[in-house]
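sorry for the late reply, my laptop died twice this morning and i had to redo everyting from scratch. anyway the thing you sent over, i finally got around to it. pasting the sequence first so we're on the same page, its 382 residues, then the predicted structure underneath. double check i copied it right bc i was rushing
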Amino acid sequence: MSDSPQHPKGSKDPHPAATATLAESPRAETSPEKQTKKPDKNRSNLGRYLLTRFLLIIPTVFILVTMVFFLMRLTGDPITASVGGRLTPEELAKRLHAAGYDRPLLVQYWDYLSRLLQGDLGRTTTDNRPITELLATHGTATLELCIYSVGVALIVGVPLGRIAARYRDKAPDAVLRVLAIMFYATPVFFAGLMLKLVFSVGLGWLPIAGRASLDTQVVLDSIPSKTGIYLLDALRTGRWDLISDILIHAVLPSVALGLLTAGVFLRLVRTNLIGTLSQGYIDAARSRGVSEKRLVKTHAWRPALIPIITVMGMQIALMLGGAVLTETTFEWHGLGFAMQQYLQSRDFTAVQGIVILLSIIVAVTNFIVDVIAAFVDPRVRY
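ok and here's the structure:
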């Protein structure tokens, strides 16, 4: 018996073109060229998306620099604000002319942008220190504190959020939601003071302030080509007494700042996991007898990561703001501590440089978060 289509004698095939095509090509095959088109298109979309996000850093930083420059000038020039009361009118006029602050504001702005593009942020008014040196010295301290704090936020917030989602509307969930509100609502300086009162003054377990003990700082300052990140420099020496001393000093500041973000992560992980666990494909897996633990770990966790990664960039900016209060509370000599000192002395040139660096860090961090989100979820590329 023939497998070809049979038609009655004398009748015409109602679809001659289709029959001919089937006869000539019984099985439709996809060419390798067509198979490779989609991956190439995905790579092209990913590259275009990342390039767009990277180029957006330029106008973002430009707008922030412009706003900081003109807002700082609302109070007058930095020299008059910081040392004007201690100089005679002639000496003040001489210093204003030397610094160029007697020129029109737009001329000063253009000159500032030109020097900024060359990497010159000027010098501090109070101690005549290059601002680039100030940022390099104190910026590493703030970076180290933020790394510790992000670690605390992830270690505390993410696992507790998964537990709260797994035990939704039960006792563990209720307790963890209250904890999340407490973490987020407690001011960072108040949390720092309470931690110092309990663990430093009361129990005497942890140091009350500083990045390291005096002996450790002397050893680290003698290291050639030091990075400024105490933990890395201590690891280079291979001395465990230095490493433990640095980590002990970092416990209270990183916990005080990290718990603020941990509360956000806890609620965010809980909300997104609950939303993912209510999807149809999760119900189908549950009906096949898949355990709740495996559902969370294997099926629901990665889809719930997307909004968490996105919000993480915004939390870095919040953490940098909280670092100002944390560093002041624990005398952690970072950018926040330096900015507080320069604000008290009304050195707006130094404050302007610190704010600009923090703005650049936030913009670059958001770009990195966008890159991670694009690799985790291909849908954000389109």
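Residues 273 and 304 are 6 Å apart (CA to CA).
thats about all i looked at so far, will dig more tmrw
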